[in-house]
Amino acid sequence: MKITVFNSSPRADKSNTNVMAEAFLKGAKEAGADTENIFLARQKIKPCLGCFSCWVKTPGKCVIQDDMAELLRKFAGADIVVFATPLYVDNVSGIMKNFMDRFMPLADPHFEKDEQGQYRHVKGMGKAPKIVVISNCGFPEQDHFQVLRLLFRRIARNLHSEVIAEIYRGGGEILQVDHLILKLLVWKYRKLLKKAGREVVEHMQLSEQTMEELEKPIIPHDLYINGANKEWDKQLAHIKKRP
Ligand SMILES: Cc1cc2nc3c(=O)[nH]c(=O)nc-3n(C[C@H](O)[C@H](O)[C@H](O)COP(=O)(O)O)c2cc1C
Predict the structure, then answer these.
(1) Is the CB of 55 within 6 Å of ligand 1?
(2) What is the CATH number of domain 2-236?
(3) Residue 170 near ligand 1, beta carbon < 6 Å
């Protein structure tokens, strides 16, 4: 089984998203998967031109010369793809949006009705990979991922696929804080992510218990906010207050 992570944080391997993705992949690898972790920030991905050449002139092929052709090959060649993104303005990062806009060559332009009687494009690629979503955000509540939950359900429908696991972490700024107790709590959370990676490979889904555990805060929200505000004070201490 091939699992490929597409990480869209501009912070690439230093990102909180990567802390999550790496732990998940570790579990997946232990369960026998062949894994790859791709940092989109290090790839050349130009924005879609909206020319529809990939549908009507060179079907399945984009006119833009950049890294996207190879990335699409990797995408289509995976059994499971992981969309890993920080939450930006309640949505995926711009890098991820650019990446996803460039999926046009994967679709056949003709319209058809889906099982719910709603129109979508005909499937363009052979086997669509199953989808896992990994995201983290700065605010502590899990509600901030409302848009992503809906967005990836829609994307899976468009790709004739399904979302088999969603892993969201509110209060994600805690994942790399240099503090003994927090490090211990994050270590426990990473263990849980590893378990999630194993479950996805072994069962193509997460257990109810794992899903429940993944939604729990690592520390209470008020403690997270107090710590964050103190950190902002520290970082802003050198700036003179306005009179
Ligand atoms: C441009 C930008 C927009 C952001 N928007 C949100 C947001 O809407 N909600 C939120 O909770 N955090 C938001 N954040 C905070 C990030 O989600 C947070 O810093 C996260 O830990 C970054 O993850 P990364 O290290 O994987 O890039 C935003 C950060 C940036 C830079």
Answers:
(1) no
(2) 3.40.50.360
(3) no
- The rounded distance, in Å, linking the Cα atoms of 80 and 101 is 19
Residue nearest atom 7 in ligand 1 by C-alpha distance: 89
* Structure-token match 């949505």, residue found: 91
Backbone angles phi, psi at 92, to 5 degrees: -75, 165
Query: Does any ligand 1 atom lie closer than 6 A to the CB of residue 137?
Result: yes
The enclosing H or E element of 28 equals helix 16-30
Distances, alpha carbon 167 to alpha carbons 24, 30, 119, 188, in Å: 10, 19, 29, 15
Strands 130-136 and 80-86: parallel
Q: Are 131 and 155 in contact (CB under 8 A)?
A: yes
3-state secondary structure of 3: strand
Q: How many residues are present in the chain?
A: 243
Domain ranges within the chain, ordered by starting residue: 2-236
DSSP secondary structure code for residue 127 in this structure? S
CA distances from 107 to 52, 101, 234 (A): 11, 12, 50
Backbone angles phi, psi at 168, to 5 degrees: -120, 140
Token pair belonging to 144? 């901030």
pLDDT digits (tens, 9 = 90+) for 15-55: 999 999 999 999 999 999 999 999 999 999 999 999 999 99
Is the pTM above the cut of 0.90?
Answer: yes
